[in-house]
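Hey L., structure's done. Input below.
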Amino acid sequence: LVIDGENGYVCKLDLQEWTERAVTLLTEPELYQRYSERSLALVARYNFDNAASGLLDACRRAISLRAPKTSNIESAL
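Output:
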């Protein structure tokens, strides 16, 4: 849910980089506010109804792509 530079930072596992990014957010209130607002907009579409619908769509797709099973006898013919 974090898009680097859009609503936060995606950083490698480096203490110095994480520290610098945290200080930036704590010292630049306008940037913090912009990232916060963007985060709220991004997560607005994540709710139980959409999650359930997405799961149902994925299940239907998986079922439709499933190849019919054939027995060894059928495949030998």
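The helical segments are 15-27, 29-43, 48-65, 72-76. The first helix runs from residue 15 to 27.

-- N.
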